[in-house]
Amino acid sequence: xxxxxxxxxxxxxxxxxxxxxxxxxxxxxxxxxxxxxxxxxxxxxxxxxxxxxxxxxxxxxxxxxxxxxxxxxxxxxxxxxxxxxxxxxxxxxxxxxxxxxxxxxxxxxxxxxxxxxxxxxxxxxxxxxxxxxxxxxxxxxxxxxxxxxxxxxxxxxxxxxxxxxxxxx
Length: 169
Description:
With 169 residues, the chain is α+β, with helices and mostly antiparallel strands. It is 37% helix and 38% strand. It has one helix spanning 2-63, and strands at residues 70-77, 80-86, 94-100, 104-111, 122-126, 129-135, 138-147, 150-159, 166-167. The strands form two sheets. It has a six-stranded mixed sheet, with helices on one face. Strands 6-7-8 form a three-stranded antiparallel sheet, covered by helices on one side. The longest helix is centred in the N-terminal third of the chain and has 62 residues, at 2-63. It is rod-shaped.
């Protein structure tokens, strides 16, 4: 009888060990899945911020696409280069400055008499870099975002319908 008890005990211990290995394996798979999920979400968030910034710029340009009202200025906001949009119609007398500052895209919406400053500005989206240039009727926007120490660049061209946008220096 004792031999049978030892056999049953040994089998029970093996079954318990197998269940423990199974439980630990499941826990490790859950932890790895969670890390992967968080990594993917963080990357998508960075990419989404860059797309939001690009969409914001496109919307502002399309709303105010009037001859000579869209310019790129080198020292527009506290020494920073900016896309400058002079508003017309119901917003006449106001100017929007879009510029990079501390790894983010910022907008300063002021009246023509107020000097634009960072304190008057609102953060639009987190980005790593922002460059804008005007080439005849094309506004070329270059954005960059960083994820896992890798910088990804996004470039887009916005057609200026008024065709006579100017580059101010």
